[in-house]
Amino acid sequence: MEEAQDIVIVGAGIAGLTTSLGLHRLGIRGLVLESSDSLRVTGFGLTTWTNAWKALDAVGIGDSLRQQHKQFYANLTTSTVSGVQTSAMSFEAKGKHGDHEVRCVNRKLLLEALAKELPSGTIRFSSKVVSIEISGFFKLVHLADGTVLKAKVNSLKC
C-alpha cells in the first residue's frame, strides 16, 4: 500500500515533535512516525537555557511549561564530604540579549505538551521504518507493516 505525504519525520522525540509543531504553526502538515506504541519517556529531566525557552515560545508552549517548572537563579556545588561550598554560579546576570532563563524540565511533560498541540493523526505510533529509498524527487519510506510512504521531504532520527 502506497501513501503520499508531503513531510515525514522519523521519531516522536523532542526534536521530531518540535519540528512537527513548528511546521504546523506555519501551516505545513507533516507526519511523525514513531516505532513505539506510545510516547517514549526515557530519562527524567533536562536543563533548558535561554535559547531553548525562546524556541519553546516560538512553537507556542513556553508559557504552559513555565507554569510547571521553577526557574533556577543560582547553581551551587557543595562538597558531599565536608559540606563546604566549592563554587557558585549566578543565572541572574544579564546575557547579551537580556536575562538568562534556566529551568529543569520534566521530559514527559515536555513531550506531552508538544504532542497535545499537534493535530490528531499527526503522530503515527507502531510505525517502524525499515528503509528509505530515493525515487526521483521523492523519498519512499518503507514501514515494517508493508506500508510505503511517498514523501517530498523526510527528516531522520528526530
Question: Key terms for this structure?
Answer:
about 160 residues; six-stranded mixed beta sheet; 4 helices; FAD/NAD(P)-binding domain; alpha/beta
Describe the fold and architecture:
The structure is a single chain. This protein has 158 residues and is of the alpha/beta class. It has one domain: FAD/NAD(P)-binding domain. 23% of the residues lie in helices and 37% in strands. The chain has 4 helices and 12 strands. Strands 9-2-1-12-11-10 form a 6-stranded mixed β-sheet. A two-stranded antiparallel ribbon has the order 3-8. Strands 4-5 form a two-stranded antiparallel sheet. The radius of gyration is 20 Å and the shape is elongated. The two termini are 25 Å apart. The mean pLDDT is 85.
* Poorly predicted residue ranges: none
Using only CA atoms, what is the Rg?
A: 20 Å
**How much helical structure, as a percent, in the residues?**
10-25%
How confident is the prediction overall: mean pLDDT? 85
Tell me the count of domains: 1
